[in-house]
Amino acid sequence: MIYQSFAQLYDQLFDQELYKRWLDFTLKQGQTVISGKCLDLAGGAGRLAVMLAQKRVNVTVADFSSEMLSLARQHADEAGVELELIEADMRDLNRLPKYDLITCYADSLNYLEDLSSVQTTFQQVYKHLTANGIFLFDMISPYKTDIVYPGYMYNYEDDDHQRAFMWRSFMDDDVEHGVIHDLTFFNQLNDGKYQRVGETHFERAYSMSELEDSLKMAGFSQIEISSNFGQEKATDEDERWFFKCRK
Questions:
Q1: pTM of the shown model
Q2: What positions does the domain Methyltransferase occupy (predicted)?
Q3: What is the pLDDT of residues 184-219, one digit of tens each?
């Protein structure tokens, strides 16, 4: 029987088009520093990092999950590129050097417990950027957590009925702008039975002004906020915001 972890299944079913859009955003917004050292923070299975490496970007992946980093190593080997992989908590980057570009996508910062943890991460990023370095990241908005996600459902089944995915989201009544995601995979094994793998994820959003204030407190003086991967001006009705920050 072939058993797969949640990380493997999640990586296989994640929308690959999003990585292409993050790649384009990174290359455009970070073009002045992209020739230097890049850190993909909370880089997970390394999909974006591999695409950057294929563009000859010197990129390091840092992630809290050793399992995700193992997948990143596998993807890098398959693509024939070099990636430095570091297991690290984004709130403590003291073992890492400075970088010219730091990225953090897929609303990874929304998974932190509270605004204090987000600000700690901002401070760590600031400390690990070179003088002219750029910090690029995205976060989902309160509109996403409060309006879009509550009651959201998504079901997927592949054509040969070997895998299915169920995603349900609920408002977190105990957390302001909080949302709970119930994620379940069903994976058919060699004996015809199904393996069930599930996780519960918690996200929290913050207002644009709260995030701007936290970035300024961390030391950033140049902050640009947009939506639609940098294509439009950010508003409170956007589901996701994109940030470009400099010292």
A1: 0.93
A2: 39-133
A3: 888 888 887 888 888 899 999 999 999 999 999 999
DSSP character string of 157-179: E-TTSSEEEEEEEEE-TTSTTEE
Lookup result for tokens 């349900």: 168
Supply φ then ψ for residue 30, to 5 degrees: -105, 20
How far lies 55's CA from each of 24, 35, 41, 79, 184, in Å? Answer: 11, 10, 18, 12, 35
What's the distance, CA 212 to chain centroid?
Answer: 19
Q: Which two tokens stand for residue 53?
A: 């490496």
Q: Which tens digits make up the pLDDT trace of 166-189?
A: 999 999 999 999 999 998 888 888
Nearest Cα neighbor of 124 from 52, 10, 215 is 215
For the segment 136-159, what is each residue's pLDDT rounded down to a tens digit?
999 999 999 999 999 999 888 877
DSSP label at residue 20 = H
Measured from the Cβ of residue 223, the count of other Cβ atoms closer than 10 Å reads 14
CA distance 43 to 106: 9
